[in-house]
Design a protein that fits this description.
The chain has 228 residues and is α+β, with helices and mostly antiparallel strands. The protein is built from ten helices and four strands. The chain folds into two domains: 3-98, Glutaredoxin (3-Layer(aba) Sandwich); 105-223, Glutathione S-transferase Yfyf (Class Pi), Chain A, domain 2. It has a four-stranded mixed β-sheet, sandwiched between helices. Strand 3 (72-74) and strand 4 (80-82) form a beta hairpin. Helix 4 runs antiparallel to helix 5 (105-130), helix 6 crosses helix 8 (194-201) and helix 8 crosses helix 9 (203-213). The chain is globular and about 50 Å long. The N and C termini lie far apart (45 Å).
Amino acid sequence: MPEAADAAVKGSRRNRVAAYTLFGSMGSGSAAIEAALERCGAPYRIVDAASWQPDSAWAELERINPLRQIPALVLPDGSVLTESAAILIHLGLAFPASGLLPAEAPARDQAIRGLVFIVTNCYAAISVIDYPERWCDGASEAMKQRIRRGTRARLHRHWEIFADMFPASAACHGGDAPGALDLLAAVVSKWAGARAHLGATRPAFAALLNRIDDQPQVAPVFQRHWPG
């Protein structure tokens, strides 16, 4: 079959594949999932939904995720995945050619370990910084600020530990495109002053994160989420 005809057939097959539905918002963790879907070449649509956007698809999000957290991904079969690490692992396994997860088991195990580390120790801290009142009933404004300062210091220490354990993340050692761990690290480190802190304490790792931002398959997504 001629190359042009072959490409047309492949494109037609892809267009017939049922799409993923990604619930997310600009500047949120859904950016990592959007970039991963682009890496996979999977068709998807985005539904704007976030607690800070009351005019968004808030009620629809709550029906599929009672925690009302984003990102949430509706799979082509109608099932729902929440939790960023779980979504990225699913995509890496469902699209092995994407390189989101390493092909070799030892490296893949470490990538999964890194994903769980970020969501457990770094991503979770952002919720405390954003909403300290959820974690201390009746907290005064002064107490909220103390909680934020303490949580931010601990978050920054967690990023230092991550940088020391994963000095080059899953795909960017010798790979030519970022993997799932790269994408999640690049997104979550954008919050709460983590990039600036790493620039001062772990400059080589901060430079790696900046290179991930600039990767051709990542930059357009990140520029939509963080314009300018």
